[in-house]
Amino acid sequence: MKSDKTTAELQQEIERLKSKIAELEKSKEELKKVQKELEEKENYQKTIFSAIQTGIIIIDAETCNILDLNKVAMELIGASKEEIVGRNCHHYVCPAEEGRCPIIDLNQTVDNSERVLLDVDGNEIPIIKNVVPVNLNGHEVLLESFMDIRDRKKAEEALKRSEEKYRTIVEKFLKISNEIIIEINK
Question: Residue 60 phi/psi, 5° resolution?
Fold first, then answer.
């Protein structure tokens, strides 16, 4: 016997298929909405990451390789993103030798600490640095942020020289004053 569907059964099947199609279209619209929101959030984060006036470098906590960095970090290092990403952090971020990482190997905390950043030529740039271990998408990384303090260091050195100069002037003045007073009292 041949299995023939009745008109009513076919109508039910068509209605069920129409319902499924409507559900799929609704799911498709919801997916588009979620994708748009995700894209907006990514753009938001990228904008902040690139606009912030602090150097930021993201380092793989296991391999110590640089995963990402922002424009300020690239400018201080003096190399492009392509030249830096994938390289070991000891080439740029920290002058410590491999196996002696202050964070990973020595369990130190870097919180507003004066450190140095290495530029592409190996020159040391004085910085104030923070390092925070974070989990990004199930991956342990070090989020390093830092500010160039070369200008501050120059100002501190100028202030130190000025203090020394005026201390010498005052000391000479006091010595001469004492000599004059001694001479007058004779």
Answer: -65, 120
Q: Can you tell me the mean pLDDT for 99-114?
A: 76
Under the banding of pLDDT at 50, 70 and 90, the label for residue 122 is confident
DSSP 8-state class, residue 79: S
Helix segments in 78-149, DSSP class H: 81-84
Structure tokens at 90: 């000891």
Q: Within 10 A of 129 (CB to CB), how many other CB atoms are there?
A: 23
Contact 72, 78 (CB under 8 A): no
Q: Is the pTM higher than 0.85?
A: no
* Residue type at 67 in one-letter notation: L
Check if CATH label 3.30.450.20 holds for domain 54-148: yes
Whole-angstrom Cα distance, residue 91 to residue 85? 11
What would the two tokens of residue 92 be?
Answer: 């740029």
pLDDT digits (tens, 9 = 90+) for 46-96: 888 888 999 999 999 999 999 999 999 999 999 999 999 999 888 777 777
Contact between 144 and 59 under an 8 Å Cβ cutoff? The reply is yes
Query: How would you classify the pairing of strands 124-136 and 55-60?
Result: unpaired
Cα 90 to Cα 111: distance, rounded to the nearest angstrom? 19
Does residue 90 contact residue 64 with C-beta atoms inside 8 Å?
A: yes
